[in-house]
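Quick entry, no commentary yet.
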Amino acid sequence: CHSLWLTIFQHDGTLQVRLHGSLSNVLEKKNHKTFKFINSPLRKYCKTMTCKSFFLFFFSSRQDVQTCTTWKAPIIWQGMFKPDDYDQEHKSQGSSVALTVFAIGRYLDVYLKDFLDSSEQHFMLGLPVTYYVFTDTPEKVPNIKLDPQRSLKIIQVERHKRWQDISMMRMKSISDQIESDIRHHSTHVFCFDVDQLFTGRFGPEALGESVALLHAHFYRLPKWLFTYDQNPKSSAYLATGDFYYHAAVFGGSWRNVKALADACHKSIMEDKQNNVEAIWHDESHLNKYFWLHKPSRVLSPEFCWDASIGKRSDIQVRRLMWAPKYYNKLRIA
């Protein structure tokens, strides 16, 4: 998220403009009406801009939604970016992505194949991607036809008796895999729940140092309705926050995802020692973490939408959809 503001004043009968903010180093003033880009990819769009066209160029993409956090992190919505630019930027930087997904018990049978098939159609196309499938039944992982530069690794994990423990203990598995493997091969990590389907582009515009997702059911609600953990005995206790984040999708550089996973696992284990369990398990701990360590990029709910909410004018594209939930049949008590 870039910032630019202008100080406009009159001196000796001449209109003067002074540039401030993060974009001031990519612009130089040609005269009192016109600017030109210097040392910036923005030069490809136009060599010079008037003051009026500059503001139209940068600030008119989406007026109906919040596009920047109070700490200046971008909130990514359709219409805010040029896909080709992000594709070329990350290809030139050599970005590569590890996708982690847990398919335990019957979740593998019901969801995994469709999840992987849809990912091959929409997730980070053009970049090297390695799937890390964590499962208790490696022999049941389906054979998926993968495009070049894409591979799949299977990691056997323990099947816990309670689904809550499966959800919470994934943080340790993610951290361990980053340390032993991912950090040597991938620049970024994205962690997904398996009961979802990619339905539209989910590209490098989502990549960042630390990436959080706005929960589709909470992004329009006032903060007092956010379901943060309100138990002061829990390490996930949070009286207030910035947004309510969804643990179905989170990511970032491998270093930042490992730091998140380590911190959440530490908090979960502290709660277990104190015989406490956060109200929404790892999601409660994730929201506490992002309150203390602000994400550098926030994904709008179009990156994980629930069709049961219905149509909304601000959701112009649905990139990832909740699959039908069968909690009573699939979850271990």
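second:
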Amino acid sequence: LRIVSEYKKKSEENGFYDRNAAAKLHERIEKRQQVLAEDVERRKEARQSQSVAEEKSEYFVSSFNAERAGIQELLSDCSGADRPTVTQKLEEATAKMTQLQKFLNDSMIFLSQYQIRVAQGALQKLQASLNETREEALPKKKFTFRSRTKAAEKVSDSPPPPSSETVSSGVTKVEEAAISEQTGFSNISNESLTKTSEEIQSRDVLLTHLTNCKVRLYGSPSTLHLKHITACEVLCGPVATSVFVDHCSNSVLGFACQQLRTHNTTDTQVYLHVTSRAIIEDCRGVSFAPFCWSYPTLDQDFTASGLDQDRNNWSQVDDFNWLAAGTPSPNWTVIPEADRKTTWDP
């Protein structure tokens, strides 16, 4: 306004005051002031957003490290402890590992790829320590066949009952439960394979070394592992936690899950519903589209899995081999709508 007033005063003194020119100058000045104010507001919002993200990231790092230390302490307590105590500690450590993985999955939306990679590496090391501790503290007994002498039979006329921690085979109840919770198919070619909800519900499913097979998994498993899958079509109901794919080629996959980890996979289509993020590593020619398989009890299985049907990050894929900011990874693409499958054979 001061500039306009000065312009008006000088123009009147010189005898050529133009009201239209003054109005246009006033309008330009107002627009510039508005642009400056909007720019200031955008920078303010950006600073606030960055501050919130940094606070969330700091909270994640501190909480993650604290939980990891707690699990490491549980594993350390297994050293020299009796069998019931070890079993209890391992069960507690396993439960905390699952919670820690879920915490990471839920936090991926605001973590950097570097932070995700570091956390995943820490979890892998922790899982390896857990497995090693279990092997050392609770080794599986091997079957042995021996002929019993009459003297031995007399001594063992009244054998003691098995302890509450073991079953007749010598395998602990914890180990037996882990074995019974896994199901799947392996080393099969040129067949149609099906598992019902009763067979996979809340269990770990392993598919390995399958070639030219059509696989249908109805229900909600706990986890899904696919290894060495070639020229197959695999469809699975909602997976409560993670799907792990390794060495898969020329295949079509479809599933819903909390997290997807894909390694060493080529020329494969993935019809995906994922509530956190999809991660690929050492992959090429992988393409994605929204999960679209349906069967009568799908909604019930979504409820059982705990997954959010309204939250699907199928196109948010992190490539750990491609960290160039602002440049799309050449290792994965989105399947064009015209090329997507919409119907599936039973």
